Amino acid sequence: MTGAAGAEARPRLLSALGRTVVTLACLALLGWNVALVLVMERGIARSDFGKLHASARAYLAGRDMYDLGPATLSPVRGMTGEVLHYIQFLNLNPPHFHLILLPLAPLPPRWALVVWGIVSLVCLALSLRLIA
């Protein structure tokens, strides 16, 4: 390819290559996020979402939102996997942030996480549409 035909083919090739790279990068990020969601779902009680959900549930039950409970305990494991002791990771979010999760508080943690994820994806789609 020389001359005018080569000059026209090169931008098309670079454009197709760029789209391929972006598509592969997006698929890799999607896979990474799916893996993170699966890890969070397995340990939902001790995840950040689990802490917030437990706080919202405590508030609806009339208890202290910042009480110590299973959502704030995180095990420290030894080399063989046995639990040596627990570390307390407290909920440090401001009280007004829990207002966002109050509608999800009556749901079981896994279903609340599903609804949270769907709403987050809808917000992402709307944001991307506004940006575009």
Describe the model:
With 132 residues, the protein is mostly helical. The protein has helices spanning 3-42, 48-60, 109-131; strands spanning 73-77, 83-88. A two-stranded antiparallel sheet has the order 1-2. A hairpin with a 5-residue loop joins strand 1 (73-77) and strand 2 (83-88). The longest helix has 40 residues, at 3-42. The chain is flat and about 70 Å long. The chain starts with a helix and ends with a helix. 12% of the residues are buried.
- Biggest sheet: strand arrangement: 1-2
Q: SS-based structural class?
A: mainly alpha
Model regions low in confidence, pLDDT < 50 over at least 5 residues: none
Question: Taking Cα atoms only, what radius of gyration do you get, to the nearest Å?
Answer: 23 Å
Q: What is the average per-residue confidence, as pLDDT, rounded to a whole number?
A: 82
Series of secondary-structure elements, N-terminal to C-terminal? HHEEH
How do you describe this structure in short?
This protein is mainly alpha-helical and 132 residues long.
Features:
flat, 3 helices, 2 strands, 132 residues, two-stranded antiparallel ribbon
Blueprint (SSEs and pairs):
Layout (H helix, E strand, L loop, with lengths): L2 H40 L5 H13 L12 E5 L5 E6 L20 H23 L1
Antiparallel strand pairs: 1-2
